[in-house]
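Memo to structure team: turn this sequence into C-alpha cells by end of day. - J.P.
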Amino acid sequence: MMNTLKWLQNWYHENCNGDWEHSYDVKIDTVDNPGWSVEIK
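Reply from structure team:
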C-alpha cells in the first residue's frame, strides 16, 4: 500500500505546474467493504 501511495504522490508532484493542480484533483475514500476508492479527475 505504501508503494502505491508513494507512486501517487510522485505522479501528482510531477504533474503540478502552477495551473494543473488547481483544475484537477485526487480523491481517496474508504468503501463499505475493506478497501479504498481512488478517483482522479
